[in-house]
Design brief:
36% of the residues lie in helices and 8% in strands. It is α/β, with parallel strands linked by helices. Bound molecules: thiamine diphosphate and magnesium ion. Magnesium ion binds next to strand 5.
Length: 427
């Protein structure tokens, strides 16, 4: 496990640094004729921020709100009001109240699982945990848009997508406890193992999608990555290949606005979804805290892929409410007021407000869900504590398919070292 914290040694923004791009460029012309209208691209000039001793008073995240941002696809406002969108409404039109409660349940249980895992790390039961706090809608909306025959390539934080793919949540914890190298069979759920090498899974996804196309299958592939990953060469290369081979892949970027301590303004001078244009495929920015909008946009993008129209970049605009991982301390480089502002856009509270105002859920539903959360938490705790320690020599397995002389030598050395310990039990 190599997700290491590089918590900022010093804050790097001045109070005068930009708070985001002023951007009015429309979504790609290939996107559904959304309520987003085409206007000229414009962005404020950014002055390189001089290093300062303390963090800026102003939040550094891009200010993106529906209305202010015509390109942001949103179906539910932060207050939980349903807003119409002619282009994307059809993709959620068939949802029943039960479906809506299902999305809510998915998000609540995912958050509960995530909180439990964070607590388990604090209790020493896990070596590390990468929390998804705040990204539940981005993950559940997109995960529920996939079909069982689609193939998903996650990064290391897609616990909500794993949930939608029916990967048992306890299986996600083995690697973070250090007892296995993955924890589930990727082919059982078409959900690849977590990938720690930032951005590399976009290449795997693109290659896989090219294979799907060659097979003549009508399934699609979706690759998850972060705003920071968008700076990796692997991501640029996969965009090129996907585009020129018209691969049936959806690039799903969760822009949570931070790559550990680096804000998005250090990754890009244009909104990320606009990168797609340069590669020749559509890019769409969706409110990543709005589960309905994410579901609709991802369904649209997956259908494009399935029907031979090629790749799409979906930028789910969201926020990482917690630390990067349990090894990180975001307060070293990030202002509290930023998080507080995003708490007001909480994806779960937003859907709850809608369920209540539309009379789609009664009090009993929420109470039952609370009880279900408790029992999920208990199940996760018990499962983690019961995980057997691996044989220390197992770390030499799976390096080479047919073995290797050097690995054999190292294994023998390590075995001898292990054997040199005296059993002091009862001494
Ligand atoms: C190739 C590579 N470089 C650096 C790292 C160290 N690293 C781990 S997570 C991370 C930040 C990733 O940020 P982002 O892509 O925005 O994803 P997020 O964690 O915010 O979801 C970095 C640099 C890595 N794992 N792999
Ligand atoms: Mg990020």
């Amino acid at each position: 496990m190599t997700v290491e914290s590089t918590a900022a040694r010093k804050p790097r923004r001045s109070a005068g640094s930009k708070t985001g791009t002023t951007r009015t460029t429309a979504q790609s012309a290939d996107a559904p004729a959304a309520d987003a209208s085409a206007t000229a691209a414009k962005r404020t000039t950014t002055k390189r921020a001089a290093a300062v001793k303390k963090p800026a008073a102003k939040p550094a995240t891009e200010t993106v709100t529906a209305g202010a941002d015509p390109d942001l696809v949103q179906l539910l406002t932060p207050a939980g009001e349903r807003v119409k969108n002619a282009a994307y409404d059809p993709y959620v039109a068939a949802l029943t109240p039960e479906d809506l409660r299902g999305l809510y349940r998915d998000m609540v249980l995912t958050r509960r699982f995530d909180a439990e895992a964070t607590a388990l790390q604090r209790q020493g039961e896990l070596g590390l945990w990468a929390s998804l706090l705040g990204q539940e809608a981005a993950q559940i909306g997109s995960g529920r848009a996939t079909r069982p025959d689609d193939y998903v390539f996650p990064t290391y934080r897609e616990h909500g997508v794993a949930w939608c793919r029916d990967v048992d949540p306890t299986n996600l914890l083995g690697m973070f406890r250090g007892v296995n190298n993955g924890g589930w069979d990727p082919n059982s759920n078409n959900f690849h193992l977590y990938t720690i090498v930032i951005g590399s899974q976009t290449l795997h996804a693109t290659g896989y999608a090219m294979g799907v196309a060659k097979d003549g299958a009508d399934s699609a592939v979706i690759a998850y990555f972060g705003d920071g990953a968008s700076s990796q060469g692997d991501v640029a290369e996969s965009f090129t290949f996907a585009s020129v081979y018209n691969a049936p892949v959806v690039f799903f970027c969760q822009n949570n606005q931070w790559a550990i301590s680096e804000p998005t303004e250090r990754q890009t001078r244009v909104p990320l979804y606009q990168r797609a244009q340069g590669y020749g495929f559509p890019g769409v920015r969706v409110d990543g805290n709005d589960v309905l909008a994410v579901l609709a946009v991802t369904k649209w993008a997956l259908e494009r892929a399935r029907s031979g129209e090629g790749p799409t970049l979906v930028e789910a605009f969201t926020y990482r409410m917690g630390d990067h991982t349990t090894s990180d301390d975001a307060s070293r480089y990030r202002h509290d007021d930023e998080r507080v502002a995003w708490e007001a856009k909480d994806p779960i509270a937003r859907l709850r407000a809608y369920l209540e105002s539309s009379n789609h859920a009664e009090e009993g539903f929420f109470a039952e869900l609370e009880a279900e959360s408790e029992s999920l938490g208990r199940r996760v705790r018990e499962a983690v504590r019961a995980m057997p320690d691996p044989d220390p020599l197992a770390m030499f397995e799976h390096t080479y398919a047919d073995g290797h002389a050097l690995v054999d030598e190292e294994r023998a050395q390590f075995a001898a070292y292990q054997a040199s310990f005296t059993d002091v039990e009862g001494a």
